[in-house]
Design goal:
Chain A: Belongs to the binding-protein-dependent transport system permease family. The complex is a heterotrimer of chains A (about 325), B (about 425) and C (about 270). Chain A has helices spanning about 25-65, 80-85, 90-120, 125-140, 140-150, 160-165, 180-205, 210-220, 225-235, 235-250, 255-260, 275-285, 290-315; strands at about 65, 75. Chain A has about 325 residues and is an all-alpha fold. The longest helix of chain A has about 40 residues, at about 25-65. Chain B has helices at about 5-15, 15-25, 60-65, 80-95, 105-110, 135-140, 165-170, 175-185, 185-200, 210-220, 240-255, 265-275, 285-290, 325-335, 340-350, 360-365, 375-385, 395-415, 415-430; strands at about 45-50, 70-75, 100-105, 150-165, 205-210, 275-280, 300-305, 310-315. Chain B is of the alpha/beta class and about 425 residues long. Chain B is globular. Helices cover about 45% and strands about 10% of the residues of chain B. Chain B starts with a helix and ends with a helix. Classes of the chains: A mainly alpha (about 325), B alpha/beta (about 425), C mainly alpha (about 270). At the A-C interface, α1, α3, α4, α5 and α7 of A face α1, α3, α4, α5 and α7 of C.
């Protein structure tokens, strides 16, 4: 993934003529330039090797077996679990739900986040207050979020149905339908993560040189034009970051549907809001570790594909200022 | 609370993260665990007890320590689902489980399949307790092989039918609990009563919450449930399961149901608001009702149709990871003893699983003013006594969920009953 | 005056967003200060009731909340500091230094974020058993010291915000790579690092599934302690929300008090960049 090559290679080597005289220093210099990049990325990879790689390989191994938790013998199946997953209609149902909830929550969330960050990226009174407010939803635990939103989206006593009834609309059973439950769950996710992403984008926007805006304002460019022509191109790397991490997060949605359904591992009577992660959890709760591992690996592949597509889409939208 | 010496050693050994990373990557064996326990006689013993809520055991621990001065007891509590899921992980990975664990009825089938993960309490002389217990409760504590004694029962969840006299009155039905019980000796009679309730024209209230719990109660009253004695899934062929499903469908078709799923927010608030007039009520649900503050006397308690029943109730087991099986077994024996169960009934309204206690005036004459002076001790123990043992299959919880989802599809999505049944059976048969 | 009108619109929009952001939170405090029946009222109650301190008292009676707070502060604090530091280093290397395998390593880093976290729990637990860290907060801190999210974030931020010319100038002045990190990279990274630290702290504070498995309720974090408030068969929403409010309040306070400094850091970085 060519996220972003450095604009220009840093650290041009010293003039070659001095090589012989400062031999000792040069050696140290070479070691510094060649070695330090590895030293700087090493902590991450060491930690990943210790705590990330082993679980990954272990589940890959498990996915090739008939592996029931608590049983000590595991029969080798080869790819049978994967074949079963691909033929399982509930797997595709969960995939659809994940994509649907993911799209419904991520797309508006990102647009809103850019817009909010843009609004906050200018001299305002009560800056701190607004920024802290943006973070509040993310400070709250997901359990509390779901309790509150379950009330809001309640069928009989919910805040939203009450407001709708003031406009003469009928009662909606948000949990029962596919579309309605997806909207309810997406709303929770949006509420929780929009401010978070806005803040990340804002941090990047702050690094855009002011002069660019001043020049554009003199040229009479409107606010929206400035956002489109200056801000977004200038913060593209961070945009890519936000799009990819949000995509990954959306593909792994788990706690919201589980708690929204009052611990229904099937995600509703018709699996209408069972996401992939919840589908894994269901098989996990049935102690079918082998099958759950196979689903996880499929999910892993999906995420790579979708994150890749999103990356391409995001980096395509050129209009570069440089 | 790190009384285990080896944990303290670890803390000293691993201040350097880098060192530990190498150990992890290189697969080096960890320091030998200081098995300081079993080797020394008359040593200090710490027992951990893992529960999924406050069982009100604290005074009993003090009592136990009087006869076991060398034992220290620490208690862990986790959320209901987390408690059981974590236990699975701990058993599967071989570490982290407490010395004594509580296992609720809905999860017990899972653990019955793996007797080798628990101490056989028969080895510690606890088989002697069999004669004290309700037969079905004792059976639940046995492993799938029918021999290994995994756990002893604590409480049971005798089944009743909770109802709202105010709504019954509006519908022109009797309100006195004995007359109400007489209305529904069978589930068919219960459905007929529901039809009368609907005809009575009560506004904004359904006859009952939803068909799921009724279906479950009816299946569990049958001699055979989802599995036969040799663990074959018989959902498709057992007429009693189909009968229960059809009863659920007829509840829906006659508009008796409020389309509510138990434990969703609409349901819990419905208890206070009176959006439904009856619900299947294990003993512990009285606590749920009280929490919603519907007001004293709003709910009353009558007998459950079909004669007897149980939902929930807990067993105490000793995972084999524990280092002190003897003490653990003694603690289990003590916590489930007649005296302890009577104390727990008084302190925590936990319904005893020992029939001898049902004659005790503290149980048999107890009336609860919150439920219109209902003799709840008698009602719930009668139901527990009347229940016949039924073989619980390995995945009965998952099968129940699949069947319940079928009924909900009929109710919430107008799926044709035959279709819902076929899909539910197919789902159940997919469960390995 | 188009500009003034635009500003008024901005304030109105932001106030609207702030309102909808705060409303559910406010409502959760309302419920936490009443009883379970508050969730059943139509229209819902909007004024806090009188039970807040009683409910908080129940929380303190039920769980070792002070210890949980201490553990959470230690865990979240050390993770946040480590993530800020190590991610900046790695992000700098990925964004501005040339070395063999850079692209591949960055790709791997991003890919590691995509591993479904739910499934890694059992093998990770096995690992902790081997290390004898179950029940100890090491099991939370050490795996969290640096993460792909932070590395990727700093890489993307620094690739634009850190002028290559500045680095070249530093080299000409005879700076070692570490010298560059100290004098050029850290100052430029400050705004993003502040945000990253804040977000990391919050995530660590709210982490739930893993601590629940690997810690015991005797030595909990706030989230683990809160989970034990459950009443058995049915969750006690009010107590849960009261506990959540109690667990959240310190965070809100920290942000409110340090907010100026964090925001200040952001502004300062902006001027320099």
């Amino acid at each position: 993934m060519a996220t972003r090559a450095p604009d220009r290679p840093a650290a041009p080597p010293r003039p070659p003529g001095k090589r012989r005289r400062f031999n000792g220093r040069h050696w140290r210099y070479q070691a510094d330039v060649k070695g330090s990049p590895y030293a700087y990325v090493a902590p991450f990879f060491l930690l990943f090797c210790a705590f990330g790689l082993f679980p990954l390989l272990y589940t890959a191994w498990v996915s090739l077996h008939e592996w029931t938790l608590l049983q000590d013998e595991h029969e080798f199946l080869g790819l049978d679990n994967f074949i079963a997953v691909v033929q399982d209609s509930y797997f595709w149902n969960a995939t659809f739900n994940t994509l649907s909830i993911g799209f419904l929550s991520t797309a508006p969330q990102l647009l809103l986040a850019i817009w909010l960050a843009h609004l906050l990226n200018r001299p305002l009174r009560a800056q701190t207050l607004f920024r802290v407010t943006l973070l509040l939803p993310n400070v709250t635990s997901v359990v509390a979020v779901v309790v509150i939103f379950s009330q809001i989206f309640g069928r009989d006593f919910g805040l939203l149905n009450w407001v709708l009834s003031l406009f003469g609309a009928g009662e909606i059973d948000w949990r029962a339908g596919t579309g309605t439950s997806h909207i309810a769950i997406s709303t929770m996710i949006m509420w929780r993560w929009t401010g978070y992403n806005a803040l990340i984008l804002l941090a990047a926007m702050q690094a855009v040189p002011r002069e660019l805006y001043e020049a554009a304002t003199i040229d009479g460019a409107s606010n929206l034009t400035q956002l489109r022509k200056i801000t977004i191109p200038m913060i593209r790397p961070t945009m890519i970051f936000v799009v990819i991490t949000s995509t990954i997060g959306a593909m792994q949605i788990f706690a919201e549907p589980l708690l929204f359904g009052a611990y229904s591992v099937t995600g509703g009577q018709d699996r209408q809001y069972q996401t992939l992660a919840l589908f894994i959890y269901e098989n996990f709760a049935r102690l079918d570790f082998g099958y759950a591992s196979a689903i996880s690996w499929m999910m892993f592949l999906f995420i790579i594909v979708i994150a890749g597509i999103n990356f391409l889409l995001t980096s395509r939208t050129k209009g570069d200022l440089r | 609370m790190s009384t285990l010496p080896r944990r303290r050693v670890t803390r000293l050994v691993v201040p350097l993260i880098a060192a530990s990373l190498l150990a992890a990557c290189g697969g080096e064996d960890p320091a030998p665990s200081g098995g300081a326990s079993a080797s020394q006689p008359a040593e200090k013993v710490t027992l951990t007890v893992a529960l999924f809520s406050d069982f009100h055991y604290a005074p009993l621990y003090e009592e136990f320590k009087k006869t076991h001065p060398n034992v220290t007891i620490t208690e862990r509590r986790s959320q209901f689902n987390d408690h059981h899921n974590n236990l699975v992980t701990q058993l599967a990975t071989g570490a982290g489980a407490a010395d004594v664990v509580a296992i609720e009825g809905g999860f017990i089938a899972t653990f019955q399949q793996v007797p080798d993960k628990f101490y056989n309490l028969a080895d510690y002389g606890l088989t002697s307790r069999q004669s004290e217990y309700l037969d079905w409760k004792w059976q639940l504590g046995l492993a799938a092989d029918g021999k290994t004694l995994l756990g002893l029962g604590t409480d049971v969840g005798g089944l009743a039918m909770c109802y709202r006299p105010d709504l019954f009155k509006k519908a022109g039905l009797p309100t006195n609990r004995d007359e109400v019980s007489a209305l529904w000796p069978t589930w068919d009679a219960y459905v007929e009563t529901g039809k009368k309730f609907v005809a009575g024209g009560v506004k904004d209230a359904a006859f009952t919450d939803g068909p799921g719990e009724h279906f479950r109660a009816m299946v569990e009253q049958a001699p055979v449930g989802f599995y036969d004695a040799s663990n074959n899934l018989v959902v498709a062929t057992n007429p009693d399961v189909k009968k229960a499903f059809d009863m659920g469908v007829s509840m829906i078709q006659n508009k008796l149901s409020g389309k509510l799923t138990a434990f969703t927010p609409e349901w819990t608030t419905g208890i206070a608001k009176g959006t439904f007039a009856t619900m299947v009520c294990p003993a512990w649900k009285t606590g749920v009702i009280k929490d919603q503050k519907p007001g004293e006397g709003t709910w009353d308690i009558a007998a459950v149709p079909g004669g007897g029943g149980n939902q929930g109730g807990t067993h105490l087991m000793a995972p084999k990871q524990g280092k002190h099986p003897k003490e653990a077994a003694e603690l289990i024996n003590f916590l489930t003893s007649k005296e302890s169960q009577l104390t727990l009934w008084k302190d925590a309204s936990a319904l005893p699983s020992l029939p001898a206690l049902y004659e005790d005036p503290a149980v048999s004459t107890y009336v609860n003013p919150y439920f219109g002076d209902a003799p709840i001790g008698k009602i719930f123990t009668d139901a527990a006594k009347a229940l016949k043992p039924q073989h619980t299959g390995p995945k009965s919880g998952d099968v129940l969920l699949a069947m319940g989802n079928g009924l909900s599809r009929v109710e919430l999505q107008n799926q044709a009953p035959e279709e819902a049944w076929a899909q539910a059976v197919a789902d159940a048969e997919k469960i390995k | 005056m188009r500009a003034a009108k635009g500003m008024r619109l901005t304030y109105l929009t932001l106030l609207g967003v702030a309102f909808f952001t705060a409303l559910p939170l406010y409502f959760s405090v309302v419920v936490a200060s009443r009883d379970n029946a508050a969730l059943a009222q139509v229209p819902p109650p909007m004024i806090p009731g009188g039970n807040f301190f009683e409910n908080i008292g129940r929380v303190f009676e039920t769980v070792p909340f002070a210890l949980a707070m201490l553990n959470s502060v230690i865990v979240s604090g050390s993770i946040a500091v480590a993530v800020m530091f190590l991610s900046t280093l790695a992000g700098f290397a990925f964004a501005k230094l040339r070395f063999r395998g850079r692209q591949a390593l960055l790709l791997i880093t991003v890919a590691t974020m995509m591993v479904p976290s739910l499934l890694g729990m059992i093998p990770l637990y096995m690992l902790m058993v081997k290390l004898e860290w179950t029940g100890s907060i090491y099991a939370l801190i050490v795996p969290g010291l640096v993460n792909a999210f932070g590395v990727f974030f700093m890489t993307q931020y620094l690739s634009r915000a850190l002028p290559t010319e500045l680095l070249e100038a530093g080299r000409v002045d005879g700076c070692t790579t570490w010298g560059l990190v100290w004098h050029v990279v850290f100052p430029a990274a400050r705004p993003a690092a502040a945000v990253l630290g804040m977000l990391t702290f919050m995530n660590a504070w709210n982490d739930y599934m893993w601590p629940l498995l690997v810690l015991t309720p005797e030595n909990p974090t706030v989230q683990v302690a809160l989970s034990t408030l459950a009443a058995g068969y049915v969750n006690d929403y009010v107590m849960g929300l009261a506990g959540t409010a109690l667990g959240t309040l310190p965070l809100v306070l920290v942000f409110a008090l340090l907010g100026k400094h964090i925001i200040g850091g952001i502004m300062q970085g902006a001027v320099k960049g």
